[in-house]
Fold:
Amino acid sequence: MAVIETDVLIIGAGPAGLMAANVMQKRGVDYVCLEKKPGRSVLSKALGIQARSLELFEFLGVNKPFLKRGYPGPGAKLHLAGKHPSYVEMYHIKSRYPYLLIIPQHEIEEILENHLNDRGGEISREHEVLDIVQKKEGVYVTAAHHGKTKTYLAKYLLACDGAHSKVRKELDVPFEGEDEGITFFTGDVEVPEMKEIHINLHLNDRGAAAFFPYKDGTYRVVGFDRTRQGGPRKREMKLQELQDTLDTILDKSYKVENPKWLAYFGTAHRQVPNYRVGNVFFVGDAAHVNNPLGGQGMNIGLEDVGNLCWKIDTVLKGYAGNPFLDTYHEERAPVAREVIRNTTMELKLIDMKGLLGKARNWSGKAVLTQGWVQSRFANELSHVHSDYDKTPINQSFKDQSLSRKAIQAGERVPDQILFNEGTTDERLYPLIQRIGYVCLIYIDCYEQDLIDYAYEFAEKANQAFPDMLKVYLVARGGTVLTGRDELPIIYDVHRDLDKNLGMQKGSTLFIRPDGHVGFHDGSADVRKVMAKLKRYFI
Structure:
């Protein structure tokens, strides 16, 4: 039997698998994506895209269809105590996307698959994985398709096959954690009396219920009813059961109609010990699960993809060694660990009742009146502060000579306005989207020593890593003519790179394809900066 060879084999075509296929297609990596189901599910577990995921979609070039079809939720209205609700506003998020984009999962998958198909990619559906074996030459996968058996050999395998991952089971990888013992209800319904632009959360001793507005005027409803806990858990929920539950929980109930789907579900928090096992990488729910509070589970999976796929491409192109891929676990596992810790704590708080519940409600109401609390809460939910600066390798690249405001290795680079080539404004993120690795060298103004440094670094970097990165000169203003093949020039007329990123004369800022800092060096020393560049790729 012929073996089908590929560079990357993706198992699963949910949001994470579809995004991985899109990234591989964009970067020209040979891949195969296998999915057991014949088509996309009409059910929609996830429903919200956080700001950081939208930024990653922008790097992929697929953000606009999401913005067109999603509902930009401005925040949440929390009914905790007293007659008046508390608000958490999302405009505090330091991103071009200061909201939770509310869109059902089946539409997320549809947009990603259409984008993939439009660019010549495809998903191989109705392929059930039977067996996985790792050998020296790669990962062998046997799959069944319409009664026939196929064998694949991949250099790398991405397990994007969900919480019940077949890949994880075949490789006997533990999924450490526990079930949380609470039965939630969820569904998409019409609520004719509700005319809300905010997410509405009701929390009391009887349970919790949250309403998420969709763009078409319908709502996702999710929560738990204390009177329906314990006993055997049903999967299907009837409309009358939902109505009875809402009548129980809410002080003023709303009539719900015309459900698209309704269900019960349980929650758990679990995580694999290592996201990498040989040349197999666990992504999204195959690597970690948490309860739905804050709408973070799917987003962490999308961000996993945003961290891993360009690294695999970098290794396949020969720019980095195989150990470079260990940084995927080092950077991403702490993010999920923190989300699991936070959502588990939040669920325990929500589950409080009696005097403890009343104390929670009143104290929560008081705290949420503070603007700094709202800002921190919104930014944490959005994942724009999910930096990697605490990992050992990124700590080793920290430059103590830079100013305190200077952005450092592993931190996310906020989008900035650039006056490119002295002709037009352009943002930094579209530059990263087109180019990938971007290197900015701050020469301040016409200074021959710094210009010579920039050209020498660009030449040596291109020799060591041909066609990998693009070097830009950054000047405050004026005309910079160097009398040679010009490096492109960005004029920092808005002072954004100075004020927001801490760049100064002699700064070299190396930015990764995911918009995080590779390193920021203030020495303007070619030998030192080239040594960092080579060490970065291990």
Notes: The longest helix spans residues 326-350. The domain at 392-537 is CATH 3.40.30.120 (Glutaredoxin).
